[in-house]
Amino acid sequence: MPQRFKFPARDFARTLAATTAVTALVATAACGSRAGEETVATESCVDTSGDTIKVGALNSLSGTMAISETTVRDAIYMAIDEINAAGGVLDKEIEIVAEDGASEPTIFAEKAEKLIREDCTAAVFGGWTSASRKAMLPVFEDNDSLLYYPVQYEGLEASENIFYTGATTNQQIIPALDYLAETGVKSIYLVGSDYVFPRTANAIINAYAEAHGIEVLGEDYVTLGSTEFSTIVNQVKSAGADAVFNTLNGDSNVAFFREYSNVGLTADQMPVMSVSIAEEEVGGIGIENIEGQLAAWNYYQTVESPANTTFVEAFKAEYGADRVTSDPMEAAYNSVYLWAATVEKAGSFAVADVQAAADGVSFESPEGTVVIDGDNHHVSKTARIGEINADGLLYTVWESEGAIEPDPFLEGYDWAADLSVTE
Amino acid sequence: MDLLVGQLFTGLSTGSILLLAALGLSLTFGQMGVINMAHGEFIMAGCYTAYVTQQVVGDAGASLLIALPIGFLVGGTMGLILEALLIRHLYHRPLDTLLVTFGVGLVLQQVARDVFGAPAVNVTVPEALRGGVDLLGTTVPKTRLFIMALAIVAVAAVTLVLRFTPAGRRIRAVVGNRDLAETAGISSRTVDAGTFFIGSGLAGVAGVALTLIGSTSPTTGQSYLVDAFLVVVAGGMGRIKGAVVAAVALGATQAVFETYSTASLAKVGVFVVIVIFLQLRPQGLFTLRTRSLA
Predict the structure, then answer these.
(1) How far is B288 from chain A (nearest CA, A)?
(2) ipTM for the complex shown
(3) Which of A185, A154, A380, A378 is nearest to A247 (CA)?
(4) By CA distance, what is A261's nearest residue in B?
(5) CB–CB of A281 and B113 under 8 A?
(6) pLDDT digits (tens, 9 = 90+) for B218-269
(7) I need a surface site. Which of A208, A248, A249, B107 has the fewest CB within 10 A?
């Protein structure tokens, strides 16, 4: 009887040895092919022979980020419909393959892989959180494909395979600080959600404050989605700062601003500068709690330009008169047009041709002319400080002189030299 | 000293919010042992009840008072349906209940998203509850005082029902010893359904009240779920008294920690305290003496 147990044991050892050997072989082979001939493994399967060209729309349609990302999806669809109605790109009709990122970075990576390899899309539009972008970045780099990312973010990143059509820090946060300094703010209090964007943003803000003689009286983070602000708001109140810099994201803003106005703080006494509150969010917070507060973006629905009038009218006609347009939606809308313009300029859908042609491609967007910087794949943008009015819309109270060139690594700012590139 | 007293008061108000969110759970999870992951979505349903009521009624003050009982019925009815269709069949399989109710929670979130849209909606706070009152050196928003009062009323109501009504006696009997209670002629099935109705209804009431301080969006309920479970576990299963003490203790700990560190560190601190506490006293603050052998 004992012998019967010996065989499986030996079998097991043999299987184990074999598996290890095979794994090692495969690993070596994989490394070898990667180092040697990368183009073979990543050959594009994009089909450009027919009358249509496929692109991917990858947004969270479920989960906690759906609240924001569905609006971006709407803008992407509208841009594609408009381009198709005007004759398409290189005479091909754009066909959308939509996927749901489900607010999960891993699912974003998985779906990106699917869009590139199985659906053979020429480019993908979408992503919102930095976590989702960071998860997708290696997928687009390994497969040598293109992602157009439409949301303002914490900077300190540049990839050959990503075009960033939202603001980087020197087009949003630094102008916001410049504005506060201009209006005589000498001390600030920082409140943010606890994840990569607010922490990086606040590192930049601290460096700026130190260089410009602004005192940072406090820095507080809450977990995403937290609604408990009584202590923080009491501390903000007793600290008596000239202004609050708010990098809270999502639902937490509702609880924060309600508590803020409940303890008697107003925009006149202590203005709050927010970088994640756009037209969409104001309604949910309640105008009575947030009227008069400030926000920093590149675009508001109220921006006066012929392109914006057309954009807002088209959007309301398509999705309903009660809908509002916001900065990330506009950046997403721009991203589709910028891609189409680059493809037209390159005369090709191939990734290498699009990358080569990208520098200097411009689009008369609702926020003004935006131009792609070929070196860092960001776009030039006009910074605007907006005030929230009783009608729930934001109105520009200050704007930068012309479009600001993107500087994701803040190389043009001496005080930012010590900011380590944190990943 | 003033600051500390003020923070203790803040803790009390934080605690009353925790308590309101956890009270229903202390019935369904604490008394019945059902791990209902959709409890947060019942709270969310209460939030939307407040929103819809306000759209219909118009006046913020009146609609809040009307929404409280409606929220109870909406939450309770949803709980009743969930109990009858799914949980009833899984009473002896707690892990399956956990998965099933988690799934139900996701479904409810998506339904809310399809019906009300993904962006958060705004429930206007009545004029009378805006602003704050200066108490012991700190400004306490009136909304929080209202929630404190509501939490006290809710706890009192639940305690009275459990202690002095025939239905409450039956619930306590079934919790004490299910088999013996059945032998005595109590229909444990009816009692289960009733308990679940009350527990879920309280989640609905909590939802209505929480629109005063937080957001109303499809994922609102999730942010309260973990805290609610913490309160029930730390307080001791099946004891309303435990939930009350645990909620206030957790709220105060959070508030005091937050004063001397940051909000995120305070959260970590609270978790550490709970882990250590449960190591020393795994049964929670108060234990329920039952006559069952298990």
Answers:
(1) 31
(2) 0.77
(3) A154
(4) B131
(5) no
(6) 888 888 898 899 898 888 877 788 899 999 999 888 888 887 777 778 888 8
(7) B107
